Amino acid sequence: MARRAEQGQAVGVVRGFKQPPFPPDTAGRGFDALLQWTCVQFGYCGGVVDDEPRHVTDYFPESGHVSANQFAYWAFLAEGDKLTIDQVLCHEHGARIRDAFIHFMSAESVEVQRLA
């Protein structure tokens, strides 16, 4: 990474997208912080899909676990994006939303009840 910086290349860039760092005091802050970050940083606040308002929480199961990958995928679905989960995770925003889930929830998967 240092060599890339010496050569004038951007460090911390994924496919041309500069990733804002997570503020250090936000780790483990929980679901409300995750939703705010996802919406404010990237605009994934939900939308209208098939003439119905949608939010990422509309895709949560009634019980069980939600993974960081699923959360990122559902954030895209709530916007009306018709990508596969693999396409979402390869997208710079999808990967960053997944990272945000892990950062704010302090886990790669949590019980859905923690996301209320």
Task: Give a short synopsis of this structure.
The chain is of the alpha+beta class and 116 residues long. Helix content is 41%, strand content 14%.
Poorly predicted spans: 1-15
Name the helix and strand elements from N-terminus to C-terminus, one letter apiece: HEEHEEEHHHE
**Total number of distinct structural domains:** 1
* Content-based structural category: alpha+beta
Shape: globular
Structure description:
There is one protein chain. With 116 residues, the protein is of the alpha+beta class. It has one domain (25-115). The chain has 5 helices and 6 strands. The protein has helices spanning 2-6, 31-42, 68-78, 85-90, 92-105, and strands spanning 13-14, 17-18, 47-49, 52-54, 65-67, 109-111. Strand 1 (13-14) and strand 2 (17-18) form a beta hairpin. Helix 2 (31-42) packs antiparallel against helix 5 (92-105) and helix 3 (68-78) packs across helix 5. It is globular, with a radius of gyration of 15 Å.
Features:
about 120 residues, alpha+beta, two-stranded antiparallel sheet, about 15% strand
List the helices and strands and how they pair.
Layout (H helix, E strand, L loop, with lengths): L1 H5 L6 E2 L2 E2 L12 H12 L4 E3 L2 E3 L10 E3 H11 L6 H6 L1 H14 L3 E3 L5
Antiparallel strand pairs: 1-2, 3-4, 5-6
